[in-house]
Design a protein that fits this description.
- The chain has 193 residues and is of the alpha/beta class.
- It contains four helices and six strands, in the order αββαββαββα.
Amino acid sequence: MFIVRKILSVFILTLLFVACANNDKEVIWDFNYYNLEPFVFKAATVEIIDLYQPPLVEPNIEHTFPISPATATKAWVESRIKVDGSNGAITVRIIDASVVSSSLPTAGGLMGLLFDQQAVRYQASLEVEIEYQGNLALQSSAQTLVTRSRTVPESVTLKELDHVFHNLLEGLMADLDRQLSTAIKQSLGGLIL
């Protein structure tokens, strides 16, 4: 029995050490997509229009991120959307780039004291439209909406929350890249060099 307790104690201490070591890592908020092959359109210009106006008050919290979803989307466009032509225009519209927090119901009493409950949900949404407009009133577009959510416990620290927000945005941008790439190939494929 003594040996089992010793092994269990070492195992728990190892888990705690690994968890603490992972949480101590600094989050690097660097969103660029130059490692991905760009879409080169037969067009002369690219314009980004950010239609999303963050309310700057809770429950919206996207303005508290070191890099907002809208800023990450602009970085995506600058890396992934290129033009090589003499006429036509690509317009990228950021329609939604929100992150909203909402409180979750938690148990009170003894259950509330004994368990670290999930207390807040963060819901991120990103809606982007890419439109081509040509000289002969030719118009095509691709649009996508991606969402991700994450809950955090009552005991979350600021450092852990930074990791949560970074991972939430990273996943959201990966979803955007995947879905928008598919939509571009389907709807705007004939305009790509």
